[in-house]
Design brief:
- This protein is mostly helical.
- It has four helices and no strands.
- It has one domain.
- Helix 3 runs antiparallel to helix 4.
- The longest helix is centred in the middle third of the chain and has 101 residues.
- The two termini are about 100 Å apart.
Length: about 180
């Protein structure tokens, strides 16, 4: 049995001799294994570099897109602000014109009230021989006083209406600017 066990077991020297005998095919197999491993690691490295390059390119595209979008939004906001400022300037001019008109109307109202007052005082003078046939003037005097009161109330209403119209136009301009900006 010992003899049979020895035959199954190979000695170190036999293994070395087999190795020296078959070194060429073993070297080719080892070389192929090294080439395969190197190729595998090289492909993984190329894949990783390509993936990193693609991620950087996508990031740059997104960044450029965000910059362009922000620039466009900023330009739209500037245009809307300029349009609103222009509308407000026009509205301020209209308000100033309305104030001047109200001032002119107040002046005219004062003049008209003075005229009405003068007319009522002239009508209330005692009748002379030449005007004895004329009416006493009380109705005319009352008419001028009533006209003066109506003119004063109308002037107040007109001033209030002008102020409200100016406010309405201002809000409409603001609303129009907001609508245009949202488009």
């Amino acid at each position: 049995m010992q003899t049979g066990g020895r035959q199954n077991r190979r000695s170190f020297s036999e293994m070395v001799s087999d190795l020296l005998k078959y070194w060429k095919p073993l070297a080719i197999v080892a070389l192929l294994a090294v080439i395969f491993a190197a190729r595998h690691f090289d492909r993984a490295e190329k894949y990783q570099r390509g993936r990193d390059a693609m991620a950087a390119e996508i990031s740059n595209r997104l960044k450029d897109g965000y910059i362009e979008q922000a620039k466009t939004a900023r330009e739209a906001e500037q245009k809307a602000a300029a349009a609103l400022a222009d509308r407000q300037t026009k509205l301020e001019k209209e308000k100033e014109n309305a104030k001047q008109t109200v001032t002119a109307m107040r002046f005219e109202l004062d003049r008209l009230q003075q005229y009405a007052k003068h007319q009522s005082s002239v009508r209330n003078m005692p009748a002379t021989a030449t005007t004895a046939a004329a009416s006493d003037g009380a109705a005319d005097s009352y008419g001028w006083q009533l006209f003066g009161k109506c003119a004063a109330e109308y002037a107040g209403l007109a001033e209030t209406a002008d102020g409200q119209a100016a406010d309405l136009k201002e809000w409409q301009a603001y609303g129009q600017t907001v609508i245009e900006q949202s488009k």
